[in-house]
Write a structure and sequence with these properties.
single chain; alpha/beta; Rossmann fold; three-stranded parallel sheet; globular; disordered N terminus; NAD(P)-bd_dom_sf
Length: about 200
């Protein structure tokens, strides 16, 4: 945060999609509290509230089955590498982004049926999305060894995303970095070996 004389500090905070005091997830409500603390700190700031990470799906495939938190809805899933690139670009030119809140998304809003099809195409293996209710998602996460609090929070995201809460895209990554965010097809190609062995 410090630096040579005459330079101001700047904080880029990684928050969560839809962070607000009335967010439908407790994670969003907790992030809103931290966002507010930063906004009131007197330190120059930029807040990133990214959409659902593409990387979340790296642990969501089990054999021929793909699981996830979108229900039958879509989301503007974003590659975490694009979020990192946005953060770096902001820190390289902080004054342009001071006191701004961005919600980085990918270039397209996709369903998990589409995600499964894309993974199948890239790996040459059959992959089918298995929708789960919020309760099934929570119970499956608990059985996989996740703690109760985290499993319940993710089940809340299943409710929110399942209602279409994340079904949007925007130009925030391109506006900040000067280039288009990665597509889900590009992400899958980059991680094809992981998906093929999952």
């Amino acid at each position: 945060m410090g630096g040579p004389a005459g330079r101001r500090g700047h904080i880029v905070r990684l928050s969560a999609i839809g962070a607000a005091h009335d967010a439908p997830t407790r994670n969003g409500r907790l992030h809103a509290l931290s966002d507010a603390e930063l906004q009131q700190s007197g330190i120059p700031w930029t807040i990133l509230r990214p959409s659902h990470f593409m990387q979340n799906l790296l642990g969501a495939k089990a054999g021929e089955h793909l699981y996830g938190l979108l229900g039958d809805s879509r989301a503007g899933v974003v590659d975490a590498r694009d979020i990192a690139a946005a953060g770096a670009a902001i820190l390289a030119a902080p004054r342009q982004h001071e006191n701004m809140v961005y919600t980085p998304t990918g270039p397209e809003s996709i369903s998990l049926d589409q995600a499964a099809d894309e993974i199948a195409r890239a790996t040459g293996q059959p992959v089918r999305y298995v929708p789960q209710s919020p309760e099934q998602a929570r119970d499956g996460l608990l059985q996989a060894g996740l703690d109760q609090w985290s499993a319940e929070v993710l089940a809340e995201y299943r409710v929110a995303y399942g209602s279409g809460w994340g079904d949007f895209t925007n130009d925030h990554v391109a506006r900040i970095t000067g280039r288009q965010p990665r597509t889900f097809a590009e992400f899958v190609r980059d991680h094809r070996e992981h998906f093929a062995s999952a």
